Amino acid sequence: MDETKTQGFVIAIDGPAASGKGTLARRLAAHYGLHHLDTGLSYRAVGHAMLKAGSDLSDEMQAIATARDVELAALDRDVLSAHAVGEAASKIAVIAQVRRILVEKQRAFSRKLPGTVLDGRDIGTVVCPEAPVKLYVTASAEVRAQRRYEEEISKGIVADFGRILADIKLRDERDMDRQDSPLKPAQDAYLLDTSKMSIEAAFSAACAIIDRVMAENRI
Ligand SMILES: Nc1ncnc2c1ncn2[C@@H]1O[C@H](COP(=O)(O)OP(=O)(O)OP(=O)(O)O)[C@@H](O)[C@H]1O
Ligand SMILES: Nc1ccn([C@@H]2O[C@H](COP(=O)(O)O)[C@@H](O)[C@H]2O)c(=O)n1
């Protein structure tokens, strides 16, 4: 990585819920020595604060004010990982002004040197459309539900596969069908269907793409 550059190298990763984009983003950031931001946590922070305050999730003014207070450096994965918080996040994520506020903060983060990995739903399309590497990570709804089910079981949570699958399908619908910044692959994104790939295989496939782009662009 060239440390004299003023614009960092950005890897943009998008994909639906439980597709493995966060796992991949963290591994890639560690491997390439880049900063990582899970942008889903910023939407979760708004949802969490609204739930905690007992606010109606459709109260746009309250959601907008809450989004202004979000500090990316203070996002706590453990606090924000609850299922109900994810649901709340996807509801407030349809509010255009909330998105504008969070996207500005995410863009500022993306400029960190020597570079960044951001994962979310609109990184390649809206937050960092100029990113030299865009990955769209996906897997079938059934595979994603199975992974989430195993994750919950491993944490000692009583899990119900049917409920998880139904929630994943509902979340996909909400994220893909919203008017503002719907989840979709950027035109120049590399598609990574990990339905039949291990975490290791997905990581190797992503590295092969990134190494090629870096070599082509002499990065
Ligand atoms: N290729 C894979 N094979 C098997 N399990 C995987 C794979 N990728 C990720 N997982 C597991 O699937 C679960 C979901 O992965 P992860 O949290 O990275 O998804 P995500 O897309 O970031 O989800 P969300 O958008 O809901 O935050 C985790 O338990 C993770 O360990
Ligand atoms: N760039 C993003 C990231 C997330 N969202 C919304 O937040 C919800 C929670 O995200 P997780 O990745 O933590 O599951 C998600 O369902 C989206 O509605 C978003 O809109 N844009």
From TrEMBL:
Location(s) in or outside the cell: Cytoplasm
Q: Which InterPro entries match?
A: Cytidylate_kin, Cytidylate_kinase_dom, P-loop_NTPase
Which CDD domains does the entry mention? CMPK
Spell out the reaction equation it catalyses: dCMP + ATP = dCDP + ADP; CMP + ATP = CDP + ADP
Q: Name one GO cellular component term.
A: cytoplasm
A single Pfam family it belongs to is: Cytidylate_kin
Tell me its family. Belongs to the cytidylate kinase family. Type 1 subfamily.
Q: Which gene encodes it?
A: cmk
What is the name of this protein? Answer: Cytidylate kinase
Q: Which keywords describe this protein according to UniProt?
A: ATP-binding, Cytoplasm, Kinase, Nucleotide-binding, Transferase
| Top-rank lineage group of the source organism | Bacteria
Please give the organism: Limoniibacter endophyticus
